[in-house]
UniProtKB/TrEMBL annotation:
Reported function: One of the early assembly proteins it binds 23S rRNA. One of the proteins that surrounds the polypeptide exit tunnel on the outside of the ribosome. Forms the main docking site for trigger factor binding to the ribosome.
UniProt-listed SUPFAM superfamilies: Ribosomal proteins S24e, L23 and L15e (SSF54189)
Keyword RNA-binding among record annotations: yes
Gene designation: rplW
Assembly and oligomerization: Part of the 50S ribosomal subunit. Contacts protein L29, and trigger factor when it is bound to the ribosome.
Keyword RNA-binding part of the UniProt annotation: yes
Full protein name: Large ribosomal subunit protein uL23
InterPro entries reported for this sequence: Nucleotide-bd_a/b_plait_sf, Ribosomal_uL23-like, Ribosomal_uL23/eL15/eS24_sf, Ribosomal_uL23_CS
UniProt GO BP: translation
Source organism: Candidatus Schekmanbacteria bacterium RIFCSPLOWO2_12_FULL_38_15
Length: 97
């Protein structure tokens, strides 16, 4: 299945933990399409951000079950990608202004 690079990368994940690994290990975290594989994610990030990538780790995140009074629901499952950038590379999106 051929996916558009803009559809593979859904959004950056900006949390305390992702900021720590960005600063110390040169890794960035994205929410990606559930059907994407490592090669597609790598090619999409290289195309969109013009950076060189060392490795890609993917993980499936299960959605939480939530209760709203007597109603029960579930948040959707999603996929997370942790991208290790090569030495000297950085993504300007995450750099402070």
């Amino acid at each position: 299945m051929k996916l558009n690079p803009h559809n593979i990368i859904k959004s950056p994940i900006v949390t305390e933990k992702s900021n720590i690994i960005k600063d110390s290990l040169n890794k960035v975290v994205f929410a990606v399409d559930k059907g994407a594989n490592k090669v597609q994610v790598k090619n999409a990030v290289q195309y969109l951000f013009k950076v060189k990538i060392d490795r890609v780790h993917l993980m499936n995140v299960k959605g939480k079950t939530k209760n709203f009074g007597r109603f029960h629901g579930k948040r959707p499952d999603w996929k997370k990608a942790i991208i290790t950038l090569k030495e000297g590379e950085k993504i300007e999106l995450f750099e402070g202004a």
